[in-house]
# Entry
Amino acid sequence: MSVFKAAAVQMRSGTSPERNAADMEKLVREAAQQGA
# Structure
């Protein structure tokens, strides 16, 4: 049996697409570092 890890990221988006993308990238990297 294999193990599958997943993560969900919840964030509050603002009006700046660039800032939203940067914030999301940070959250995804943090999740990946924790094994997601």
Q: What stands out?
A: The first helix runs from residue 17 to 33.
